[in-house]
């Protein structure tokens, strides 16, 4: 077997792996970056980028219809929407991404990587020895639910999130299992494109991880887009419809049935660690990789194995994985130079934000944007809620409907979390993130004057509601 030596071997060439590799190279190390699929990863070709490209035209059309004086009769051209999406993903061609990897001084390697020993990664007939570290950034994969009959369905009838973001024909009927982020976003996107969409969810409203007012607002938005909601239900059995002119699937649930031309499974994801050979270093394949705040994997001797992104199970979001990767790359480079690796909170080498300030946006209409904690936890924490009703929101759209919740540490008068729901509230999120990370006292925020007339004026209303 051919032998190769690099300072660092990074497994997984999505945005997380690319960032880890780039930071390590920037720190003076040699790096091999390995992936068996497309360089650029899930986010670039199957998740964040194509899903938002599918959602944006429908959300823009909904915004237009809220504005008097604008022609409301236009619709979406699915072919044009798909073409724009494909432009963002280069039609699945990752050659430009590979060129970038090489230009950054990183060696791209295609193939399935397995950890086969200490500081050793095997890719096909090649063995890569990492003088300093191996960094795992392989992301996550779909978690398939246990539903009777699912494994027997013809593959062409079942969509995962990858199919939902890359399909180029609108199904007449689409059933979606799961009311989380992927389920709600894709239900709305395909309804806006003209599909008859049925969303089955186990809870009373979509987005169960968010405050109830956010889920209720998104439910209203889904209904406005034409999505039929089935709350508090579970798919009990699925089967192919006999005698259908075209392939169709029947979903039995709660004494009723839904027939659809495609069934989208959106019931969650799990870390992609099953085929990494983790058993060779005493870890359980398929489980999240436990890491400390420097990204070092726990339970592996020698201090050489690191992980970042979805594989850690910490905060399965692209931007948070990239944040972790930048820190891990810097930590590995610092350790290789013999420099101090800092372990104190909020230092340049610790992923402190994983615990305190994880931002996330659900790109439905209305949008949901959240950072930090979403519910108060006992004495010393107070929830402050109010409608987003300022001059900026009234000008933004007729009948603008939005709401926010702030969680305040009343002992220190600092924000611990913010949740917004409403059209275009994602643009309010980074201000909240800065306030939380910076632990800006609310009396100081009083002097951060919001421009008039913008939706950001709601910050002033929030401080007034709190009592300042």
Summarize the structure.
The protein has 14 helices and 22 strands.
Can you describe this structure?
This protein is of the alpha/beta class and 468 residues long. It folds into three domains: 2-40 and 94-142 and 270-353, FAD/NAD(P)-binding domain; 150-267, FAD/NAD(P)-binding domain; 366-466, 2-Layer Sandwich (Enolase-like, domain 1). It has 14 helices and 22 strands. Strands 1, 2, 3, 4, 5, 6 and 17 form a seven-stranded mixed sheet that branches. Strands 8-15-9-10-11 form a five-stranded parallel sheet. Helix 1 (15-26) runs parallel beside helix 9 (318-337), helix 3 (48-65) crosses helix 4 (78-88) and helix 3 (48-65) crosses helix 7. The model has no long low-confidence stretch (mean pLDDT 96).
Topology:
Blueprint: E1 2-11, H1 15-26, E2 31-35, H2 41-45, H3 48-65, H4 78-88, H5 95-103, E3 107-110, E4 113-117, E5 120-123, E6 126-136, E7 140-142, E8 158-159, H6 161-166, E9 173-177, H7 181-192, E10 196-200, H8 212-224, E11 228-230, E12 235-240, E13 249-253, E14 256-260, E15 262-265, E16 269-271, E17 305-307, H9 318-337, H10 353-356, E18 359-362, E19 367-372, E20 381-387, H11 391-396, E21 403-409, E22 414-422, H12 429-437, H13 442-445, H14 458-466
Parallel strand pairs: 1-2, 1-6, 2-3, 6-17, 8-15, 9-10, 9-15, 10-11
Antiparallel strand pairs: 4-5, 5-6, 7-16, 12-13, 13-14, 18-19, 19-22, 20-21, 21-22
């Amino acid at each position: 077997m051919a032998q190769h030596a690099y300072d660092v071997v990074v497994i997984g060439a999505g945005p997380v792996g690319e960032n880890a590799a780039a930071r390590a190279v920037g720190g003076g190390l040699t790096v091999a970056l390995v992936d068996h699929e497309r360089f650029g990863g899930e986010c670039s070709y199957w998740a964040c980028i194509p899903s938002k490209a599918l959602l944006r035209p429908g959300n823009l059309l909904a915004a237009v219809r809220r504005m008097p004086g604008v022609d409301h009769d236009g619709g979406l051209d699915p072919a044009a929407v798909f073409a724009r999406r494909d432009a963002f993903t280069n039609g699945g061609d990752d050659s430009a991404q590979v060129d970038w990897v090489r230009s950054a001084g990183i060696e791209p390697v295609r193939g399935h990587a397995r950890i086969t020993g200490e500081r050793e990664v095997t890719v096909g007939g090649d063995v890569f020895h990492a003088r300093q570290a191996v960094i795992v950034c392989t992301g996550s994969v779909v978690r398939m639910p246990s539903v009777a009959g699912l494994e027997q369905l013809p593959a062409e009838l079942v969509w995962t999130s990858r199919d939902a973001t890359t399909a180029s024909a609108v199904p007449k009927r689409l059933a979606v299992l799961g009311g989380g982020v992927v389920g709600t976003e894709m239900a709305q996107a395909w309804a806006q494109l003209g599909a008859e969409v049925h969303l089955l969810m186990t809870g009373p409203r979509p987005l169960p991880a968010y405050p109830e007012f956010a889920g209720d607002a998104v439910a209203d938005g889904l209904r406005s887009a034409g999505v039929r909601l089935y709350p508090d239900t579970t798919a009990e059995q699925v089967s192919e419809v006999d005698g259908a002119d075209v392939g169709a699937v029947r979903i039995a649930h709660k004494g009723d049935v839904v027939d659809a031309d495609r069934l989208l499974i959106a019931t969650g994801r799990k870390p992609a660690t099953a085929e990494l050979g983790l058993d060779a270093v005493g870890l359980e394949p398929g489980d999240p990789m436990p890491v400390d705040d420097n990204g070092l994997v726990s339970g592996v001797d020698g201090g050489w194995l690191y992980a970042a992104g979805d594989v850690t199970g910490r905060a399965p979001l692209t931007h948070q994985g990239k944040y972790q990767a930048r820190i891990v790359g810097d930590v590995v480079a610092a350790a290789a130079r013999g420099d101090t690796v800092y372990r104190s909170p909020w230092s340049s080498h610790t992923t402190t934000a994983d615990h305190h300030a994880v931002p996330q946006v659900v790109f439905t209409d209305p949008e949901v944007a959240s950072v930090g904690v979403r519910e108060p936890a006992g004495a010393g924490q107070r929830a402050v809620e109010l409608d987003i009703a300022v001059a900026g929101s009234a000008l933004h759209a007729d009948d603008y409907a939005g709401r926010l919740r702030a969680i305040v540490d009343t002992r220190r008068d600092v924000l611990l979390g913010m949740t917004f729901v409403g059209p275009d509230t994602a643009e309010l999120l980074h201000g909240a993130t800065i306030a939380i990370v910076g632990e800006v006292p609310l009396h100081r925020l009083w002097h951060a004057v919001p421009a008039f007339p913008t939706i950001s004026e709601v910050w002033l209303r929030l401080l007034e509601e709190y009592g300042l």
